[in-house]
Amino acid sequence: MIINKSEIAGLLDNLVKEYRVYAPVQKDGIVTFEQINEGTQAKPGATSKKPPKEILFPQSEELFNYQVDSQGLRMEDKIDDTKSVAFGVRPCDAKSMMLLDNVFHNDEYEDVYYTTRRKNTLIISVGCNQPASTCFCTSVGSSPFDTDGSDVLLTDIGDSYLAEAITEQGKEFLCKLNLPASDDQAKTKAEETKKQAQLTSEVDTTGIKEKLDDMFDHPYWESLYEKCLGCGACTYLCPTCHCFDIADEAKDCAGCRVRNWDSCMFPLFTLHGSGHNPRTSGKERWRQRAMHKFNYFVERYNASACVGCGRCIKNCPVNLDIRQVIADIKAQDTGSEVS
Amino acid sequence: MNKNNPYLPIPMRLVKNFCETEDKLIHTFDLEFVNKEDQENFKYLPGQFAELMVYGQGEAPFGIASSPNEPGILKFSVAKVGVVSKALHLLEEGSTVGVRGPLGNWYPVEDLKGKNIVIIGGGFAFTTLRSTIQYLLDPVRRGDYGDITVVYGARNPGLLLYKEELQEWENRDDINMVTTIDRPAEGWEGRTGFVPAVVEEVAPSAENTVCIICGPPVMIKFTQPVLEKLGFTPEQIIMSLEMRMKCGLGMCGRCNIGSKYVCKDGPVFTLEQLKKLPNEY
Q: Which of B60, B96, B280 sits opposite A73 (nearest CB)?
């Protein structure tokens, strides 16, 4: 099906009546993914500085509120089941949601805050005609028009988007929009567009999991972290980073429990009550970050926790480039090389 | 655990707030279920932990010191170190607290059937060991297990937990209870010496035996070679780990050792399992 670009704003206006709609929005000089009230706010085709993971896993959210007084205990949780549409998600970010699904619904527990939003959110992605210089999705098993995690994939073919349903929900959604069918010309154009989308950077990640199996005690970690400031920007802007803190915001016996994004790059993250800290310096924290993405996560969920979006590269204040880290890891001698 | 939302605590009533040690650092808390239904749903085994919540302050993870054969209550012994534990210490009996659990895995009490059991504890890391001893000594169950030997040490007599129960266990003949303090102290007629040395003296046989050890790192460090000398293999040594935790569900990401989350895959590991994990705990 075809969506004419000039009709996007009107289409979103209609969606807003029925759904909570999120889209990339230009605000304070940056693009962020936000809830919109009218179609003209949206900038589909723009890549947000912060990943849209916060639609499902907000940076800060109230889990429940409570009050204890003479009448007893009152407690109320807030599960958000609003029907939502995320319009203009990048394929890498859509893929990251599939990785997060593993975390928030494991073999024993279901995080109902996340899973309820997930079930109620349609992901409408826009493929990347011109990947940025920091993008390396093809190096981590994805591509600029990857359909993983999307319900609908849009391909920019000039004046319009070609819309393809990826899931059943995506199909139903598109049917309801009464869009004109796509002709052969549009289909051909979309195919060409997909072929032309070239990544300018890549890094060989094959075998990195196995390489890291033998690298926990490797001297490489002793210098890697030296220029890192420990600001945590890489983790906050990473679409797959999911670490969080739980805290109470309360006065006397009434208040709420909130969860906030947290970061393995912070020393307090692992500090015990006793004062002991298993990750005392940047060395251990950087090792954790690299290991978690390319070894531990693979071990647990059979996929690396990196979708190649490049946000950590673009926004690192000291230019610590994860692509270089991957290349350097691959180049280290671990004394157990087969080839 | 709340069936629909694992983040929601169940309400419990603090029925006893007892100062356990002479340095006043450890209090033991007995909690009673407010709702009958919660009591029925709270099924746990020795070694598991729970998040204990003080309304208005937050929650923190603590090993469960009571045993499933002590129905109706949960017991926790908590050192005063942080915001939640300090608030707990000050809490009046009768107050409502929140509990989220049981969380984590447990000592493999099923696999231990037919085996001799050696339990080694030090300092205030005796909470889930108390749970284990209570569990094993349950008359309906005691026959399932072989000899039970316990070595428990503290710096001085005033720092031992559960003093009355220790006395009671010492008087029983179906458990070899050895209590020790580091140095001789006035009024102490029991054994003196550090835990590793006492384990060497007691010298439990490793044959058909499993050892559960829980205590400060320095105690574990020096007891391990003693156990090895006695013939214990890494598969026969079971430990319980501590880590900073938040969710307890394997999601928040901070308590991992390698690819394992201590909150969900642990806190109980055999030494054999730990040897395969990175040394980062």
A: B96
